[in-house]
Design a protein that fits this description.
alpha/beta; binds zinc ion; two-stranded antiparallel sheet; 8-stranded mixed beta sheet
């Protein structure tokens, strides 16, 4: 049994699988012409395997709402799947169809997490945890919002960003995963494996910009957007043919982590890439790209941040210095983050114009580039749990602060 389906704009094979609750391999078995290293093409017809219905037999003491929450299905969705059942009059032995349900939290770990998924995820978290603060800090080249989301009431201000590089989009999902856990533990006043969420909330304010480069992320995940005038130049700029999975830059082929005014000219001369490219082209001048400008303007606001972390993939390393601009405490911070995560703190030379470089040079505060996970970008989603543990330990340490002595 299968369902015919016409591929829509915004679909990827993993997103379709997640929406219908099927495995990628069963989709491929049913559609042998599909190639997972090619983009899903809107308008093409595919066949989706049909899931056998999941049936539950009502037990003594069960209530409709308990069953819904046990299977993580919205009660209304459960009611729709069982139109003849009266939710107030369940009888033991009665069968209920448990419909398949998924939301943006599942996308984080099971499919490509892009700008649309982030936007929905943020709105879901804001509804669920009204103490979170949300703000649009800018707009990408193609008009997508660049969003910031904040948690905490304290005087110590901490910033973390993700997906500056397009094919490192998993960092966006990892930051949102941390945020949700933090919010849930704060709300429930529970200790989170030794981390006092309440104390952190009162001591710090954390502002995340989970996806600095939304156009680039979408390009990596979905291929060239039609109906933009970047469609033609992109195919000239891309070194890898029609495959954009190795793309790091924004949609204009500018590497946002080579855009910051921190010895920018030296980085340009070192890279010697003078045209738009998938990576390492820093633009015609520092801060020409709206995504880099949005981030810099956000960081430049007062009160300033005391510490900043920029999440990239991959390498399980933490870069903590910049020339000799970093404050003395940076090294102690690097050791703390190293201990917390098991990553290696590395003193890096011969690199300029990155976000971390600019933050350290301008504010003389601790700034870090964290290279999450290990392997080839984009990292596979089966590493998500492990990377999530590592990112969580780094952010918990950042929010807990350096201990004296
Ligand atoms: Zn990167």
């Amino acid at each position: 049994m299968s369902i015919p389906y016409v591929i829509q704009k915004g679909d990827t094979y993993l997103r379709i699988c997640l929406r219908y609750g099927v495995h990628l391999q069963s989709l491929l078995n049913l559609n042998p012409h599909l190639r997972t290293n090619e983009y899903a093409i809107p308008g093409h017809l595919i066949h989706i395997p049909q899931r056998p219905p999941n049936v539950y037999l009502v037990q003594q003491q069960d209530t409709f709402y308990e069953i819904a929450s046990r299977f993580r299905v919205p009660a209304q969705w459960l009611a729709n799947a069982n139109p003849t059942v009266n939710p107030r009059q369940l009888t033991p032995g009665q069968s209920l169809i448990i419909p398949y349900w998924t939301d943006e939290r599942d996308v984080r770990r099971e499919a490509e997490y892009g700008p649309v998924q982030l936007f929905n995820d943020m709105n879901g978290l804001i509804d669920r945890y009204p103490f979170l603060k949300q703000e649009q800090i800018g707009t990408s080249v193609l008009g997508k919002p660049i969003m910031a989301i904040g948690i905490g009431n304290g005087p110590v201000r901490i910033h973390a960003n993700g997906a500056v590089h397009a094919n490192e989009w998993i960092t966006s999902a990892l930051l949102m995963e941390f945020l949700e856990q933090y919010a849930a533990h704060y709300e429930n006043c529970r200790s989170w494996r030794g981390f006092d969420a309440h104390a952190a909330y009162e001591r710090t304010t954390l502002w995340l910009v989970p996806m600095v480069n939304p156009d680039g992320v979408e390009l990596v995940q979905e291929g060239v957007p039609d109906r933009t005038h970047y469609a033609d130049p992109l195919s000239d700029w891309n070194w890898y043919g029609e495959d954009y999975r190795l793309w790091k830059a924004n949609i204009r082929g500018v590497d946002l982590n080579d855009q910051f005014p921190a010895h920018w000219e030296e980085e340009r001369d070192r890279r010697s890439i003078m045209n738009p490219a998938p990576l390492n082209y820093g633009g015609e001048a520092p801060l020409t790209e709206p995504e880099a400008i949005a981030l810099a303007d956000f960081i430049d606001r007062e009160p300033h941040f005391d510490l900043a972390l920029s999440f990239h993939t991959q390498g399980q390393e933490i870069y903590w210095n910049y020339r000799d601009y970093e404050p003395e405490e940076s090294e102690r911070w690097a050791k703390l983050l190293e201990q917390a995560s098991g990553y290696r703190a590395v003193k890096l030379f011969g690199s300029d114009a990155g976000f971390k470089d600019w933050f350290i040079q301008k504010y003389r505060k601790p700034g870090f580039t964290v290279e999450v996970g290990y392997g080839v970008n984009p990292l596979p989603l089966d590493q998500f749990e492990r990377m999530s543990v590592e990112v969580t330990s780094i952010l918990k340490a950042a929010l807990s602060g350096l201990q004296e002595g």
